[in-house]
Amino acid sequence: MNSKLVEGLSGCSGSNKNAIYRQQALTNRLFSQMNTLKAEYKELDNKRADNTRLIGTNKANSRSAVSSMNDKRKEKEKELDDLEKKDEQPGAAPMPTGDGGSGSFATTMKNSASSAKF
């Protein structure tokens, strides 16, 4: 198209020919920039696709790791429960729980302070 346009200008003045050549140079530069941007976009789109794939893989790996840890935790809890049941002896005193009776000690101290005479 451009060669036909330039050939058709053989009878035109030099300033008109220069305007056509300048416009053609601008068009060529803009197409070059557009092609460069297309190449950069394609490269970035490929990187985005790779990152999306890697994110999915990492998500699956982390879910698997958490699931594995929960399974191992449950195994250990069951193992400890089984050991606790094995160690129980018939007629043995139950394992102490709570704070060891500190509540009654505090009550006794409080009462002794109010009943003290100076």
Estimate the mean pLDDT confidence. 80
End-to-end separation in angstroms reads 119 Å
Instruction: Describe the main β-sheet briefly.
Output: none
Strand content: under 5%
Q: Assign a percent range to the helix content.
A: over 70%
Q: SSE order, as H and E?
A: HHH
Identify the overall geometry.
elongated
General description of the model:
- The chain has helices at residues 2-7, 14-87, 102-115.
- The N and C termini lie far apart (119 Å).
- It is elongated.
- Helices cover 80% and strands 0% of the residues.
- It has 118 residues and is an all-alpha fold.
Describe the structure using short key phrases.
3 helices
Short structural summary:
The protein has 118 residues and is mainly α. The protein has 3 helices and no strands.
Q: Topology, please?
A:
Layout lengths: L1 H6 L6 H74 L14 H14 L3
